[in-house]
Amino acid sequence: MTKEAPKQRVRVPAVSVRTSDSFQNFEARLGIGTDNMLSASTYGFNPVTRNRVLLEWMYRGSWLCGQAVDVIAEDMTREGIIMNGGLKPDELGEMAAEMSDLAFWESLNEAIKWSRLYGGAIAMHLVDGQDPATPLRPQTVTKGQYKGLFVLDRWMVQPSLSDLVSDFGPDLGLPKFYDITADAPALRGKRVHHSRCIRLVGVDLPYWQRITENLWGISVIERLYDRLVMFDSTTTGAAQLVYKAHLRTVKVEELRKILATGGQALEGLVKQMDFIRKFQSTEGLTLLDAKDEFAAFNYTFSGLSDLLLQFGQQISGALQIPLVRLFGQSPAGLNSTGESDLRTYYDGVKNAQETRLRRGIEVALDLVARSRLSKETPREFGFEFRPLWQLTDMQKAEVARGTTDAVLAAEEGGVISRATALKELRQASTTTGVFGAITDEEIAEAEKDPPPAGEIIGDLPLPGIDPALADLDPRGAKLAPEPISNP
């Protein structure tokens, strides 16, 4: 057998291939990749999140940056929650009072703010007598042990980047521990287990970008940094134009000669200008030499308001906060009140509450119940975030009246039982504001009621007929069975 010669490998140099998967007109130089100025546009890397000092300067010095960070955090926590089911009304009141005493909502609000400003933060559950480096053990919490939340931003903790959560669940792949740095306000050098933390991020990132940020997100300011610069630049530029709104000029004969010669002629010119500025006003006179000429020019600012509004709308869209909430101004247009914009915004806040806060609040409520009531929350216990869009007292009364009439009509018609009616009325209390004091004992007592008459009538004999006489003829004789005829 003859041995084949090895094939020679051919290396093809790598070249960049320009794609043409969009509209292009090379003759008119329209479109991307047609050698025009638009083709040179691209996006750069501006890691503002890593510059902590710059973020703090912007937060302190720019009211708009403060609004971008604070508004959503305050709206996510300002109305609190509505607890229901499994506990007595007085016990629910005790839990709400305990959360108020521990400044729970204030701490959670602070954690959301710093997560939006820095890109990440944690709110640590404080349980007296437990090692923070160990997993949280709610079943061991006794009366008075839960002390609320302790907020640490991303610069106060170091995540365990090499020790990640391996248990299947929502925390899979996240840091297992957080080491508190030496410059933190408290608990310096302590290690905290992830189960004791409510972890919050500003803007979520893809995996590889998340690695570059130590498994955190980025600040909400980073995405709208260029829009903020444009808005502030336009606002400052408009303010500078005010100084030029009324420009005045004086034509002086042989001005160059006077400036070149100097002496008494120049001194006289300077005195004349000072004299004009000293006595000229809206009511004063302007004294000039007979050969001098005076002129005034007025600047108009038409279009500046529209320009500022457009930049403001871009910031509003980037933050998903309507103009009426961000700037305190209603949108332009006939019959535009901003109500629909606010409703859409509140829906977004509701979604953020459910996705970012619910799990952490559920853990906190269980700890509060064990610490204040000395018992765990029952299985039927739950909570809802209180709606941000509040009804007026008149609207609540109308809704309560309509709901009550509908439930009572269904009960009287035999469609639902009294226990179901009580459940429906209590569930509607979050909207109507009434019937929230219906207890589980009252519902359990109502479930013992006998069923409506319509449900048992099929088991009763027809009126006027004795079952024992059903097989007798009118003379009292036993009726013989009818013969079966063969086909």
Describe the structure.
- The protein is of the alpha+beta class and 487 residues long.
- Among the domains are: 246-298; 392-451, no CATH class.
- Helix content is 41%, strand content 10%.
- The chain has helices at 52-61, 63-77, 89-101, 104-118, 207-212, 220-223, 225-242, 255-261, 264-279, 304-319, 323-326, 339-356, 358-372, 393-412, 418-427, 429-432, 440-446, 453-456; strands spanning 81-84, 120-127, 146-153, 157-159, 177-180, 191-193, 197-201, 246-251, 293-298, 382-385.
- Strands 3-2-7 form a 3-stranded antiparallel beta sheet, with helices on one face.
- Helix 2 (63-77) packs across helix 4 (104-118).
- The protein is extended and about 110 Å long.
- The model has no long low-confidence stretch (mean pLDDT 84).
- This is Anti-CBASS protein Acb1-like N-terminal domain-containing protein.
- Residues 57-407 form the Anti-CBASS protein Acb1-like N-terminal domain.
- It comes from Chelatococcus caeni.
- Residues 445-487 are annotated as: Disordered.
Features:
alpha+beta, three-stranded antiparallel sheet, 18 helices
Strand proportion, as a percent range, falls in 5-15%
Q: What is the CA-based Rg, rounded? A: 38 Å
Order of helices and strands: HHEHHEEEEEEHHHEHHEHHHHEHHHHH
Q: Ends: how far apart? A: 95 Å
The DSSP helix count reads: 18
Major β-sheet annotation = 3 strands, antiparallel
Helix content: 40-55%
Strand order of the largest sheet: 3-2-7
- Mean pLDDT comes to 84
The count of DSSP E runs of length 2 or more, i.e. the number of strands, is 10
Question: What class would the helix/strand composition place it in?
Answer: alpha+beta
